[in-house]
Write a structure and sequence with these properties.
Blueprint lengths: L7 E5 L4 H11 L6 E5 L5 E5 L7 E5 L6 H17 L4 E6 L18 H12 L3 E5 L14 E4 L2 H11 L4 E5 L5 H11 L2 E9 L5 E7 L6 E9 L3 H12 L5 E8 L3 H8 L5 E5 L11 E5 L2 H12 L16
Parallel strand pairs: 1-4, 4-5, 5-6, 6-7, 8-9, 8-11, 11-12, 12-13, 13-14
Antiparallel strand pairs: 2-3, 9-10
Length: 320
């Protein structure tokens, strides 16, 4: 005799409440009630206002800026749910911060991505649902199951209507070649690469272009932009090589003040991104924010029902 499926409860931290509400609308379940506040000294206080004993709990919280505060808030919410006897706790992290710190590339530096994975496990997370990790091998840092979704199907649907002329998909650095190749195949375009050199944490220099972009529209693709240095320097070099309109497709746009200035002065026509984190609008610059609530909501439903999520990677329609 099969046991009844535990009831699903969805809660959200304060990082991206708008996305959490849209996810709940997509899956037809109310957003759970929780009190999140701070003591005068900055300590986070959490109280879950509903009975979750024996429930299948999902906590939505991207670790966007302020990163440490939102990460700590997530850990405290998980601990509250565990101590309230939740049956299973899934951390839904649309944007997983610290993923870039995934190796020791210098002496005496941490592997912070592994540390965050350990913290989530120790807090009581049973499973992680995330999207567009900076490096896919970060999944291996977890000792619990990780469901890794991609925003690419959502972006491709929009890009097919936007890119109407001959287009080249360009990776702004060598590390993003695999992602650019996937976009190129889905859109039926040629592929090019910009080789770069990082000068500082906020400044990069485009060195040369591998591939032909003269007389073509260009789509720059990346998983994350923060200071927009890589994208804007690549766009400048591509324009010098004869590119026409330049578009940037990015899964996570965590735009700091420096990025705003660079985008306003860049050769990029439009930034296309998702609402995995709250996106700052850039005055005088076109930014298109696509909603990933249905993608994440479908992932949550399938995890709750113990169904496969692999079909969520499929891209509908043929390449143009």
């Amino acid at each position: 005799m099969y046991a009844l499926q535990p009831e699903m409860k969805v809660f959200s931290g304060s990082a991206n409440m708008d996305l959490a509400r849209k996810i709940c609308d997509a899956i037809g379940t109310p957003l759970g009630q929780a009190t999140i506040s701070s003591f005068p000294d900055g300590e986070t206080y959490v109280r879950i206002e509903e009975n979750i004993r024996g429930r299948d709990v999902f906590i939505i919280q991207p670790t966007c800026p302020p990163t440490n505060q939102h990460l700590m808030e997530l850990l405290i919410m998980v601990d509250a749910a565990r101590r309230a006897s939740a049956d299973r706790i899934t951390a839904v992290i649309p944007f997983f911060g610290y993923a870039r710190q995934d190796r020791k590339d210098q002496p005496r530096v941490p592997i912070t991505a592994k540390l965050v994975a350990n913290l989530l496990h120790a807090a009581g997370v049973s499973r992680v649902l995330t999207m567009d990790l900076h490096a896919q091998q970060v999944q291996g840092f977890f000792d619990i199951p990780v469901d890794h979704l991609y925003s690419m199907p959502v972006l491709i649907k929009y890009l097919r209507t936007r890119l109407t002329r001959k287009t080249v998909v360009v990776s702004p650095d060598l590390g993003g070649l695999k992602m650019a190749s996937a976009y190129s195949q889905a859109l039926g375009t040629n592929l090019a690469i910009v080789a770069k050199q990082r000068k500082t944490a906020t400044e990069t220099e485009a060195l040369y272009v591998i591939g032909e972009v003269d007389g073509c529209d260009v789509l720059l693709v990346d998983d994350l932009t923060e200071t927009a240095g890589t994208l804007t320097s690549a766009a400048g070099m591509l324009k010098e090589r004869g590119a026409l309109n330049i578009y940037a497709g990015v899964a996570h746009a965590v735009l700091v003040d420096l990025a705003i200035q660079r985008l306003q002065n860049s050769r990029i026509e439009e930034l296309i991104t998702t609402n995995s984190t709250p996106v700052r609008m850039v005055e005088g610059f076109k930014t298109t924010v696509l909603c990933v609530s249905e993608l994440l909501g479908e992932g949550i439903k399938r995890i709750h029902n113990d169904e496969s999520v692999s079909s969520l990677f499929k891209i509908d329609g043929s390449s143009k």
